[in-house]
Structures are given as C-alpha cells and as structure tokens.
Known about the structure:
Blueprint: H1 3-31, E1 35-46, H2 47-50, E2 57-67, E3 71-77, H3 79-89, H4 94-103, H5 106-111, H6 113-134, E4 138-150, E5 165-175, E6 181-188, H7 189-192, H8 201-210, H9 219-226, E7 244-246, E8 252-254, H10 261-264, H11 269-275, H12 281-284, H13 294-299, H14 306-312, H15 316-319, E9 326-327, H16 333-343, E10 347-352, E11 355-361, H17 362-368, E12 402-404, H18 410-420, E13 424-428, E14 434-439, H19 440-449
Parallel strand pairs: 8-12, 9-10
Antiparallel strand pairs: 1-5, 2-3, 2-4, 3-6, 5-6, 7-8, 10-11, 13-14
Helix pairs in contact: 1-6, 3-4, 3-6
Amino acid sequence: MATATIEMTSRLPDLSDGAFEAFCExxxxxxxxxxxCERRHVGTEAVKDLRKRFKKLAAVHMVAAExxxxxxxxxFFDQGALFxxxxxxxxxxxxxxxxxxxxxxxANAENxxxxxxxxxxxxxxxxxxxFREDCEGHGHFVKKSTVLGxxxxxxxxxxxxxxxxxxxxVYEMTVDPYPxxxxxxxxxxxxxxxxxxxxxxxxxxxxxxxxxxxxxxxNAEVASxxxxxxxxxxxxPFPPAPPQTTKSDGAVEEAxxxxxxxxxxxxxxxxxxxxxxxxxxxxxxxxxxxxxxxSYIRSNPSLADPAVAELLRAPAxxxxxxxxxxxxxxxxxxxxxxxxxxxxxxxxxVGENGxxxxxxxxxxxxxxxxxxxxxxxxxxxRPEDDATLAVKVKWIMSRPVRTAGPDTSLAKMMEMICRHGxxxxxxxxxxxxxxxxxxxxxxxxxxxxxDDSFSWKGAPPPAPPLLL
Length: 468
C-alpha cells in the first residue's frame, strides 16, 4: 500500500470524528436539540461481521467520493438513529419517536423515507465540508442513494458482499432526550487503495452497482452489464469529459464543451427519442437514463436526424431562464416560501453580492418544515410546528452547486443531470456571475416543442406549488 494511502487510512478516524461532530452541530442549530457523538471502535471487519451490529432496521447512506478518496463508502445508522433523526426532522411527537425506536416496522420507516433521505443529505453535506477544509486533495462527496431495511438479512442494493473487508469507525450518538443509538462509517479496502484523484473505469462500475435503481447513474456501465456487448465500432461512445473547476465557495463548475458531431446522437439520444418524449422519467430520475452506443444509433436513423443534432447543440444561454430569484443564507424558510410563491418558481439561489453559495428547491423546503403545517394535518398543528418556518436557509440549502457555462450544450446539460442528479443547473459566466438557470422543465419543453408529432406548444410551470 502506498505511503499516501497508509497516511490517509490513519487519518480517516479523526476526519470521521470531525464530520460527525459537524453533523451534530448542524442538526442542533437547525432543530434546537442537544446532540453528542463519541467514537467507540475502530478496526477492520468483514461485512458479515458488520451485519451483527445492525440486527434490526437500518438506514444505509451510500456516498461517492472523488479526490484522494476515490470510490464509494457507506454510513450506517441503526433503528434508533433511523427513527430519532427522521422524527426530529419532521417534528414528530416525542412519544411517537420513542414508540418507533422500540417497535418500528419497515412500513413505519417507509413513511419517513423522505425525512431519512434529507437526513442523509445533511449528513453528507457536513462530511463534505469537513473533508474539504481538513483533507488536502479532497474533491467532492455526493450521496448516491439511501437504503432502508434489515442489514442482517442482506441488502444487495448496498453493493456489499459478506466477505468484503471494511475499515469501520463506530460511534454512539445521542439526541436529548432519546436513547443512545449507533452510527458507523465503513470504508472498503479497495476504496483506500487508490492514490489518483481521477476515478477509473472500475471505480465508476462500483458506483453503479452501489446505487439504488431510482438514482441517477452512469448508465454506460449499466448497459454493458445488463445487455449483450454492442457491435464493435471505431466511434467513441462518449465525448471527452469536460474539465471541472472548484470555486472558492466550494461550488463546482463544469465548463461547457461541445461534443463532436458524430457523438451528439449518442448523448441522451434515448432520453430524447425514448425517455424524453415517450416518458419524461429518463430525465427526471424516475427511470434509468440509457446512453446508447453508436451501433444502436445507426440502426435507428431517426435518432441521428440533423434536427435532433442541432437541438442537442443548443447552448445554455439560449435555453436558460433569466428571471433568477435570490435569497441570503440568513433568510428564513418562510421568506423563501413567500418568494417562491410570488415569482412562481421552485428554485431560489442562495448568496450575497452575486456569489453563489447554495440552492434551495421546493423539495428542500418540504423536507425542512413540519409535516403538520400542511392543510390535511391542520387539526394536529402545534405552535412549535411554526418554528420550522424560522429555520435559516443556510441549514437546508443544497451545496456545493453544480453549474453550467453559457455555452454548455443541451446534450451536455442532459448528461450532467443524468450523471449527477438534481433538476436545476445555474448558468455561470467566466467572470463568476450567474446569468440564469436551466431546469429539467426547460429541457423537456425544448425536446417536446421540437417534435412535430405533438399538436401543442408551450411551457409547463417551473415547479409544482408548495402545499403549505
């Protein structure tokens, strides 16, 4: 094992300490609870041994890492953590949370799935911030998926097998006044064996296997794994990946690179002709977006139509919405809801003096506010539910923000969304100023309006209204 890898392995427990402590501080400030975390164990274990620690329900967050750490690692939370943390997020009564900790079923966990997902987002955001500050060579952490179930019964969605060796760092965490629960960070040995900052093809395949089916994936590997090999071709299935730069605020900007003409039909072709028109799921994440090989394109001439190629070359500057809505990090959730309703948008950029610091979407808002603020639960409304409206958006915003350049093509933006998730790309110029945003709805409108078989033209609303 290389010296750099040995040093990184020895540092992981301390970095994990800082990341979990940051997570506790973030949740404490957001929901006014007292949280503590203490490390209990560090060692190497096989997955079959790790399963013994999680005999009941568990939540498993799978995290893709780029940089000095390269691959996928897992964050495990036991049944107590699952119900306590998600219950705190949605402001459930203490009695209900305690009951779920003792006797909660898979059905109870499924009811809290959105809250568990949001806890995972907050968790990975805390980890990413600590590693960015304290780990030289760190690139980025992205939560790939969250799996709920009994680890003892084997969860194939995690991509782990019984004999896999893991470096595990085990913690006890408390949220006053609830019982202590266990959380564990688990790093595969293969994950620790990389020194290069750029991922390999094998690494990308591992990420696909570890992703839940409903998550955005790099489906070039999916297609090759699930189908017979495509015909040999001299053409590249993908254009070269664009360079990335990391801005001072942590936002990642991908430079717009026009794909070669012969490859344009490959990028998102199925999303256009199959998923983008017949089913929008290919772009919205409801189904796997498949990137097709050149032999398939040649056998389906309509997919390589010049009009389609021209559409895929359309730049972000031509597609984007220029009426961007802003807020500051210290604005409250209630302030942002008012702006969303006033401007009829589902996305608000967070920053000051034109510097992009984060992004708030309707899903961020719904995950942050109490469930009992919704009209159908009005009879259960309590004064403390209103407190969730006073939470500052800096605690709930998505960050860092993946952006596009004004010259980034429609094809490239489709690829970025399919690969990395999200439904909104701010468009940032070379000088760092935000010029507009491109949402998944804008892309769908372009695709649908370009198809003459549709008898209607127009644009859908940018996002559904918040039911608050």
